[in-house]
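[job 4471] stage=fold_predict status=RUNNING
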Amino acid sequence: MPLLSTDPIDFLLDPVTNDLVITDDLAWSYGIDAVRQGCHIALAMIEGEWFMDLEEGVPYLERDGIDSRRVLLGGKFSADRARAAMVPELLKVPGVKSVVYCTPSYKERALTVKWEVNTVFGDTVADTLNRTI
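[job 4471] inference complete, writing structure tokens
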């Protein structure tokens, strides 16, 4: 069954604090906003941090169970290697049809990822993830 823009995809997170949005009940994210939120979560998740699936996420840092040759940060940064690790994570997000671009850069302990995806709703979503490591 195709995903509709009115289908709830995930719990809504506050864009500034990343806390769950709770009014009278938990709020849901829908459509394009849910895809944007899902992409942000996918790119921010460090491989090995989620106890339910230690292989989920991007291998930013060296951890138990992660081959040091796959780690993106902590040595010489390669945008090509980072992109190769990030694009599959974006494609796993519900509602993402294809990745238009994913441009990671790293300078002075700051990671910036600019990305744009085509959605199953016929629109594109673009955003930037900024992380200080």
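[job 4471] summary: The first helix runs from residue 31 to 44.
[job 4471] exit 0
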